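Board notes (copied after class):
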Amino acid sequence: MIVHDREAVPGSAADFSGELGIEWLDWAETEAAATPADPVPLRAEEPLYILYTSGTTGSPKGVVRDSGGYAVALSWVMRNVYDFGPGDTIFTASDVGWVAGHPFIVYGPLLAGGTTVLYEGKPVGTPDAGAFWRVLSVYRAKVLSTAPTALRAIRREDPELAERAGHELSLLLPPGGLLEIWGSRQRFIDSYLRAFPATTRRATPATSTRTATEELAAELVRLVREHIGPVAAFRDVTILERLPKTRSGKILRKTMRQIVDGEPYAVPATIEDPAVIDDLIAALATTVSAPATQAVSVPR
């Protein structure tokens, strides 16, 4: 295990080395003692790396990638999907140890001969919701690759995107993006670039939270039956502030189902905030069950 020593984090690599049979190495010390090494030829089917899943559906699985095919595929994607090559910079706002991090932080950009930005932090709170925009502007990145979860977190903390102001983002071009509607530029702007007006329904002081939740439950059931059909037997609604997720943004669906069904469950070590599980269990006591649908006899 190689770690980078930081003043804000107590302890050092030497403090943990040997625990569980794992050797911990300091990044700076290891880099200083390193000697240049020539590339080693490998067969195309030789394993490149083993990347473990987050374990949201059970025990983590070690996914093995090959060397040749992986390199060919990423080289093609970087050139033909991202239009990325020498002189370009990509900011993949992800974890290097996640499935999107390996190909689009490390291997892909370097195979394409470009520059990649390694970012340590979150979309918000490190220190604010403008972190992504600052990185893009400072390093003049042409490509931003991130998860929808990250963008939703930014929008939740900064609904008006005020933190984006003052940052130069003109280099960002969506690959394969829609240019316009032929012969109707204004329609293109109105349909795809203008914000949709938000429709909200606020509860009055005289309306209790329970009543508002019951109304929401009934409305959700109605919409599911209307758009999906009676085959979707949706009835129980639990309102949560947050869903349990891994640090990479995956929702712990299996864990939630096991909790709701009263089955034994295990919380993955990769969970972002274990306290969310406690909030979920507490919220189940306030679950609202919409009225059951009634069977209707149809005359023959």
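Comment from the instructor: Residues 1-36 form one domain. Residues 95 and 101 are 5 Å apart (CA to CA).
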